[in-house]
């Protein structure tokens, strides 16, 4: 199948007036009711769309394209092809199955309303906003904590029990190479990403984000706390810093 680079879709709703809360609910219903195609492909498409809908909550605002590059990485890692580059025209999986996406699932219309009751000045908080904000606020602290943690390891002040170590295989998005590292089950995703980058010999201008089952993992939590199972391959998405 032809695979063109992902680009943003823009549209104006003419047959109905959409509010943000209605879009959020109907998108959730849409993905909950998919019965054709492969579930893991729908899951991956959903993850890519979440990045496009709200790059900040998905920690993708700093990829240089406000989430577009991150969404492209997620789709490419799952071998999902875009015949026109526009998700509103549907996608294909590696087996040739077609997945159709309505415009209102792909992105908000230009004339979206904040709410029906209070007009455009109202702000509706959707589920997860508070925790996403908390995660954003804590990111800087996590960076500092990881740096301190890294320095402790370098100085030999931290001893990790070998019995707690598990093997992890990560597939690089840049060249498809598999990288094997040993990690502690309680280790943060950010720390694991640094190990993968070091083992892969990536230059300092590159960084890694880890994706699993079509979802970019939170960097301040462990793999296992985000449902990763020992032995499963993760995707190591390579970005420019």
UniProtKB/TrEMBL annotation:
Coiled coil: none
Region named Disordered: 112-156
Compositional bias segments (type: Acidic residues): 131-148
Descriptive protein name: Ubiquitin-like domain-containing protein
Species name: Fusarium albosuccineum
Ranges annotated as biased composition (Basic and acidic residues): 112-121
SUPFAM superfamilies in the record: Ubiquitin-like
Residue span, Ubiquitin-like domain: 166-241
Any Pfam family: UBD
Superkingdom of origin: Eukaryota
């Amino acid at each position: 199948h032809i695979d063109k680079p992902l680009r943003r879709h823009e549209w104006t709703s003419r047959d109905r007036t959409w509010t943000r809360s209605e879009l959020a609910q109907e998108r959730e219903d849409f993905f909950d009711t998919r019965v054709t195609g492969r579930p893991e492909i729908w899951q991956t498409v959903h993850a890519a769309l979440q990045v496009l809908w709200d790059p900040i909550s998905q920690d993708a605002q700093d990829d240089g394209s406000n989430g577009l590059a991150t969404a492209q990485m997620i789709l490419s890692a799952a071998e999902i092809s875009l015949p026109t580059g526009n998700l509103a025209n549907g996608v294909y999986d590696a087996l040739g199955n077609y997945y159709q996406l309505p415009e209102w699932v792909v992105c908000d219309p230009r004339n979206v309303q904040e709410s029906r009751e209070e007009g455009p000045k109202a702000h509706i908080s959707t589920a997860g906003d508070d925790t996403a904000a908390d995660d954003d606020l804590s990111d800087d602290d996590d960076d500092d904590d990881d740096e301190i943690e890294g320095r402790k390891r370098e100085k030999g002040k931290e001893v990790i029990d070998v019995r707690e170590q598990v093997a992890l295989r990560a597939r690089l998005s840049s060249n498809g190479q598999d990288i094997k590292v040993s990690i502690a089950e309680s280790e943060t995703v950010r720390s694991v990403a640094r190990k993968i980058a070091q083992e892969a010999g990536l230059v300092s201008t590159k960084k890694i984000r880890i994706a699993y089952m079509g979802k970019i993992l939170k960097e301040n939590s462990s793999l296992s706390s985000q449902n990763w199972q020992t032995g499963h391959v993760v995707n190591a998405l390579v970005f420019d810093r």
